[in-house]
Amino acid sequence: MNKKSIITTLLALVAMTGQGQIHYRLEGNIGRPDVTDTLSVIENRGFEEDGNILSKTIDTLYIVNGNIVPMEGTLLEPVTVTAFNKTLSIQLIHILLTDGATKINGTLDDAVVRQSGNPLADDMNQMEEDWLRLKKEMTDIMSSGKPIDTMAMIAREDSFVVNTLKAHPNDEVGVICALEYADDICCQFPRRGIELIDMLDAEVIAKEPKLKGKKRDLLTLLSTSEGAMFRDFTAEYNGKQQRLSDYVGRGQYVLVDFWASWCGPCREEIPNIVAAYSKYKDKGLQVVGVASLEESERSLKYVREQNIPYPQIFNAGMPVLQLYGIDGIPYIFLFAPDGTILARGLRGEDINKKLEEIFPDNK
Length: 363
Hints:
Elements: H1 3-18, E1 22-29, E2 37-49, E3 52-64, E4 67-75, E5 79-84, E6 91-97, E7 100-107, E8 113-116, H2 121-142, H3 150-167, H4 172-181, H5 183-188, H6 190-197, H7 202-206, H8 209-223, E9 234-237, E10 240-243, E11 253-259, H9 264-280, E12 285-292, H10 296-306, E13 312-316, H11 318-323, E14 331-335, E15 341-344, H12 349-358
Parallel strand pairs: 1-7, 11-12, 12-13
Antiparallel strand pairs: 1-4, 2-3, 2-5, 3-4, 5-6, 7-8, 9-10, 11-14, 14-15
Helix pairs in contact: 2-3, 2-4, 3-4, 6-8, 9-12
């Protein structure tokens, strides 16, 4: 290699080494002098692996008497992070790490940090303050005892999200807003949720796994809404394959509960489902549990301990939940005899109300 080639190669290596790197520093005080603890720092963006969105620990944050021991490091680009301890008794969210120093000056609500030192900090603080003010106003309305106009409340949230996304279509403020503050809208109106996400620049969505996953789940919600045909899946337990189609689409109404024994709300819901099964099984209702996201032995042990009388599909993993756009359990569906979806997201008394519509002579 001649001298010119060597110089060219060295220059290229220097350019590659410095490309896209930022050097961050986090300092300040969390406003709690009683706290001395060690926190894991998790990048909010996450990464996708086998269809799951996983989180990555990028650093460790030390707190001494409420003061942050300055934390420094290098990243490819600015990110937002969450810091928390092992017991989750301390959580600091929406921290911006960018080139230079970010300073924390307490929190807005024990979790959302008040920060400064980077170009987006003031806008992030303003968004958080506006959101907390809006939520307080809504909480006051709900606790006032007066009639609640749910659609008006959703419209106010929608306006807040739209204004934020218009102002921040290509930065972390907009990403946080779309991921977290549009949740109520996304849950009730998936199509509108997709429209809101698409207000962000396409390049931003493309590099945010959580955003891509949320949009994918909303599209799935639309395709598995009431009136849609059921989607079959297979789960293997003890060498045997179990299918949803073993029960659904075979001429009976079928209530399907996605659950896990480690899930407290799931355990609370099961007595309601058992009662519905006892009441309507002789009238044409089938009930099926889909034990999800845990070892089948644990699920089976709980079924036996609680004497749950209806059949179970064991060992359902995340792909099964994603097939129906389920982002949390328990999640309960009601299928018609032909396999179409009659209702999704049933809980508590709503289960019985829906079944009374189908079997009115049991009132």
